[in-house]
Every structure is written in C-alpha cells, then in structure tokens.
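Blinded run. Sample ID left blank on purpose so nobody reads anything into the name before looking at the predicted structure. Input follows.
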Amino acid sequence: MTLEKIIRDYEAKTPRSRALHTRAVKVMPGGNSRTTTFFDPYPFYAARGEGARIWDVDGVERLDFNGNYTSLILGHAPPEVVKAIQEAAALGASFPAPTEHEVRLAEILTQRIPSVEAVRFANSGTEATLNAVRAARAFTGRHKIAKFEGAYHGTHDWVMVSVTPDLKQAGSRKRPKPVAGSAGIPPAVLKHVVVLPWNDPEACEKILVREGDVLAALLVDPLLGIGGVLPPAPGFLERLRDITARLGILIIFDEVISFRVAPGGAQERFGIRPDLTTLGKIIGGGLPVGAFGGRADVMAVFDPRGGRGRISHGGTFNANPLTMAAGVATLEALIPERYRHLEALGERLRSGVTRLLRRTKRGGQVTGVGSLFCLHWTKKRLTDYRSSRPSDPGEPVRVFMGLLNQGVLLTQRGLGCCSVAMTEADVDRFLTALEGILENDRR
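Blinded prediction complete.
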C-alpha cells in the first residue's frame, strides 16, 4: 500500500483532528509545542486515555505502545496515581517550600539505585542532563564532555550534538566528528563535545585517552534508547567504566528511558555503578519531571548550607508536590511481579516480530530489553547508530502510519514499549496489525 493511500485513510478517520490542527497552525509554529509529536499531514489530537488505550477527538481508539515516549509504565490514568495527584492538588498545586512528597521520592530512588547517594529534582530529562554535566565540570575542573553518536540526552546545547547526524558530515565510524543536532547550536559547542562510536571499546578507549585530561564526563544511555534500543555488547559498559575511572572522567548514566528495565534501572541490570545518573519519564507518574543524582561528594557542589554551594540550582516547579506524589505512587506500584509481567510482554512482542519478519521475508529486525523494543528496517548487523539506519527511509513512516490506521500507536522511528496495563492479547493485536501492514506492502 502506498503512503498516499495510507494518509488518505488516516485523514478520513480524523476530521476533528484536522480541524484542530488548522486552528493550531494560526497560533503556534507548525501548530504544536512538541516537535516529536508532529507528523504529516497532521497529528491526531488526544481526548483521553485509560489503561493501555488512548482515544482521539474523533473517538478513534488505539492501543498505546508509545506510552508518551516510554513515560507511562503503568498505562493511562492508573487509579493509584490519579488518587495521589488529586489528594496533592487539593492541598495546593505548588509552594515556595519543599514538601514531604519530595523527601519520600528521593528516599525511594536512593534505595533503589545504590549509586545515587544524593538526588535533586527538576522538570525534565533535559534539565537533568544539563545539571549533571554542570556538576561534572564543577567537580573535575575540566570543560569538555563526551557522548555517543546517535544518543539523545535532551535539547540543551551541550548534548544536541551528533544525535542523528548526516553521515556525510560525521567522519569515520571509529572517529566520529561532532555534528550540530539543530540550528542555533554555536560552533564553539562542537569544540567542547567529543563523540564516540557505540559498541566499539577499542576506538572509544583511544579517543578517551587522547582527550582524557580535559574531559569532565562521559554521558551514556546504556541502551542507546532513542538511537534504536541497541543494547551494549558484552563487556562494553564495563570497559567504559574502567577507562573513565582510570582517567578521572565522571561517567553519567542517562536512565531517562532505561530506568524502566529493572527496579534499579539499566545499571542494576548490567551491574555497573556510574558516578552520576539522570532520570525522568516514569519517575513522575505522567507529570513533568527530571532528576539527577549520584556520588555524595559530586552532588555536594549543589549543597547551599553555609554558603558552600558551587552551583545554584533553582526552578519554580522543581519537586512540584503533584509530580512528587505521582512519582511516589508509581514507584510504589512497581512491585517485582509487575517487572516480571513487563519482561514477559516485551519478550512475547520481540519474539513475535522476529517470527513475523522471517515468515514474510521482510528486511527488518527488532531489538530491545525488558519492556522496550524498536523496529529496524535493515538487514545489517545492528551495532550502532550507523548500522541501524533504514535501507528505505520511507519504510518507518509507512509502518507508523499503517499501524495508526490499524488502531496501534508507536513512535515514528519505531521505538515502543509495553505498559503494566497491557495483556498478552494486546501484544498479539500489535503483531496482527503489523502482519497486515507487511502483507499489504507485498501486494
């Protein structure tokens, strides 16, 4: 089926969304405040969500394997989280003072993540990585940072580098060049960001040793989540930990996405202890949130007692009581049985997609860990950002839009997740929908 036909079917199902988009473009650039939710010809407009499902303003129901970009681990409107938010809101939406909810969420996180000896809250994953980078620079006295090609760590200047670079500008695989990930990134930023190749320990060690004296931190998404959920090769993270420790470089695990794969995140799953950790998404129960924490001696740069703090960290809505209450309710609901349920759903989906691709002889693959998965439309062996690029750039769009018309929501690049609210039948519905799209493509 052609993309044009898929889009016509979508437009026929979503006239109210089209009307809202027409209004929106008159008052917002492109009609939205969040680029990632936009797609041509226009995004659908959400009306409500419940459990594993989301309904748009036209009444179309879809199974939600997007989960607000992996944030909604319990699904939409889980009763325990709704109750916690309502109770907190009834007492006041925000205060110029801390609340007990903040203390409780910090206690839960430090108990779950042994490497996080102290933690502070912000309002997004972007703020979390921004403050973690600043802390690393203040603590080490160094100015450069390192990150991986294909890794996303938010939208501040220092990390908007080589996120989805044009390979014509990106240099060789073993020595990637820093490429601005957006217009408006000052050229000076590129001189202070070192880019590494994912899953190539020898190349990484050479670059880190060469730059070691000036590197404050290495940012690591342990699953290269937005880059395609490409898990680390055996021994890769351990090698990075050893190298950075030897060179005095702080290693920052960005667990904004990967924290959902175990009670203590990917660092628990892989047995690595980073110096700093950044968090977001699921720890806010569906509300805006960010957090960063780690070694007590590093986090002491934020300690304002006695005027000794080297970094001022403000924010009118940091540790907002509604968000903190929602986060506490979410994490308390994530008992071991629920992680086992998520693991089983993720494995059922990935193995089902693999069988489907073999049966239809399509040039695709699926990767993932725990409740996370990502569809890849290439036959190449998947190791890094470069190998994960689709053979046909139009295929991810056709699959995304086709699934949308079949009542299944994914992300545009193929990243998806399962939620606690899902069942085996929901996973099977995803597989049936995907099979229909692949069969239609063969005709």
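Unblinding after everyone has recorded impressions. The chain has 15 helices and 14 strands.
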